[in-house]
Write a structure and sequence with these properties.
4 helices, 15% helix, 8-stranded antiparallel sheet, globular, 40% strand, 10 strands, two-stranded antiparallel ribbon, mainly beta
Amino acid sequence: MKFFKSTNFILLAACSGALFFSFSETPSETTHVAPISAETVVSAKTTNKSPQITKTDVSAKKAIKTYKNKYPKSDVKSLSLEKKAGKYYYEIEGISDQKEYELKIDADSNKTSDSGTDTLEKIEQKGVKRKEEKLATKGMISIKKAVKEAQKKVKSGKVTEVSLNKSLGITYWEVEFQQSDKVVEVQLNADNGKFLSKETSELDD
């Protein structure tokens, strides 16, 4: 978990735990786990090479366009890119005034699959949940840019997933690095790439 030398914190409640965002110019990094062992650290030159996840033929913006073509009256509420069965896929979740949607997109061919639709609870309809969860994607930075910025905060590790989410009005990229015994997640403002937070956790056995 990353903490900042500032009293102006924004608490991001996410599935992976609580994250603290700060807009201080001089962040101070701490973590609740032991320092990375020598075996897990690789050279910065190796770490900063563009990983395979940034080289897919379909960009995040193109994937969102594909989703919008299928569900034109909805907004994107989450997006993730990761490798499954040897191929990279986008998984996009969306929301309209009445329903929620899911769509899987091949990150190289742009072909869609595994779509789904679910009706919102009445209390969530009429744009209530939609307004709260829709992402600001218009001016977002690319996955390649997000990964490059995240690499500046992590000494080693393989990028296994990149996701786009929102909390407390902030749309952010989360880049996940897997090390030999740890997972490091770096959060960046999706609009400008500014570093927000970093969380380190032990790998599950």
